[in-house]
Amino acid sequence: MRITMIGSGYVGLVSGACLSDFGHDVTCVDKDAGKIDALRAGRMPIYEPGLDQLVATNVDAGRLSFTTDLAGAVAGADAVFIAVGTPSRHGDGHADLTYVYAAAEEIAAAVTGATVVVTKSTVPVGTGDRVEEIMRRLAPGHDVQVVSNPEFLREGAAIGDFKRPDRIVIGTDDERARAVMHEIYRPLYLNESPILFVGRRTSELTKYAANAFLATKITFINEIADLCEAVGADVQDVSRGIGLDNRIGRKFLHAGPGYGGSCFPKDTLALLKTAEDAASPMRIVEAVVQVNDTRKRAMGRKIIHALGSDHRGKTIALLGLTFKPNTDDMRDAPAIAIAQCLADEGITIRAYDPEGMEAARAMMPDLVYCRDAYEAAEGADAVVIVTEWDAFRALDIKRLGQIMATRTMVDLRNVYRRDAVEAAGFRYTAIGR
Asked: Residue 21 and residue 34: Cα distance in Å, rounded?
């Protein structure tokens, strides 16, 4: 099928590359000419493991191309996906749908025949209705159906998530649109990935509900971790004990410094605003957002406590800046609030991250950026693990002890065993154990 992807950011680029790998003819569109030029030259605008090779393979095969010409890409397409950004709107937390509606208007002006317009962007309930109204108003002579098809991609594992999904949610009541979407995802259906056809509004809400629930699991286990510290229990054992219950499951039960990234923070806020507008408050999600916001600075205070009462003027090695491993995404990363808390107390921060250094420099210019974990730790009074990159899972503890001023480790991801670290002469502080 001929598919056009409007927006060549994280969701659009990964989705377009994967769909082309299924054998579809995909054109990715973006207004940023510099981004399109870079993609044509094989340079990825984001870090995602395996994406560069996937793009190169399908460009070479003639199935994937990039352009700034939206009208030319939309004309004659069987399906046009809208995969533009929906950031939180300044002031009220609502999802900013400016780019979605602008894309819809341009699509409506460019369609030349029967087309299915698919909202891949994360959008509040009722957005598809507005997109459909735009299509009817600006493209009255064409058979255009509007479908919701939310993405469920984890940064750092997006290609695998797209090709081996838990489910594919498609919101439409139109039979022709249903047939088009079924054909697009037929390669996955043959692998028995479930395709769930629902109403369009149900599909839109499913995305927000999923992210809010996962954010709740993260926040729940973080609060349990605090309780574990207070009563002398081990949160890792608690996590195993409850995670083995099939009704609960093991995933998203790893205590840490709080959630961040491009999805959970903005999507929980957008869901709260949707619920507020519908006069159906969501008290649990409200608490999740509040607890997560306060937790990040609380982690900064935890580090300060580990340094002792004479913490001013000390130096720490901050390992891991992105909100999770295998991405360069710094949006709402816990490291930002932690670094600010430490800087407010006169602590010098030497930082290293395998992929997030460039983005971090733009957001936190006062940090001292280092070439690797050991350079960051040289002369430091404490090493702090904020993001559980593989590169930090097997640090040479003996070497760290030789180059640090004081042997202190604060492990905000519970990567290490206490006995192993303490055997090397370190003071060890973890989360909930």
From this structure: 24
Q: If DSSP states are collapsed to H, E and C, what string results for the chain?
A: CEEEEECCCHHHHHHHHHHHHCCCEEEEECCCHHHHHHHHCCCCCCCCCCHHHHHHHHHHCCCEEEECCHHHHHCCCCEEEECCCCCECCCCCCECCHHHHHHHHHHHHHCCCCEEEEECCCCCCCHHHHHHHHHHHHCCCCCEEEEECCCCCCCCCHHHHHHCCCCEEEECCCHHHHHHHHHHCHHHHCCCCCEEEECHHHHHHHHHHHHHHHHHHHHHHHHHHHHHHHHCCCHHHHHHHHHCCCCCCCCCCCCCCCCCCCCHHHHHHHHHHHHHHCCCCCHHHHHHHHHHHHHHHHHHHHHHHHHCCCCCCCEEEEECCCCCCCCCCCCCCHHHHHHHHHHHCCCEEEEECCCCHHHHHHHCCCCEECCCHHHHHCCCCEEEECCCCHHHCCCCHHHHHHHCCCCEEEECCCCCCHHHHHHCCCEEECCCC
Give the C-alpha separation, 212 to 284, whole Å.
9
**Whose CA is closest to 68, among 126, 4, 21, 156?**
4
- The active-site residue, picked from 28, 228, 263, 370, is 263
Tens-digit pLDDT profile for residues 21-38: 999 999 999 999 999 999
Give yes or no: 263 in active site: yes
The answer to pTM > 0.90 is yes
How do residues 104-153 score in pLDDT, each as one tens digit? Answer: 999 999 999 999 999 999 999 999 999 999 999 999 989 999 999 999 99
Angle between helices 98-110 and 127-138 (to 10 degrees): 30
Name the amino acid, one letter, at 364: M
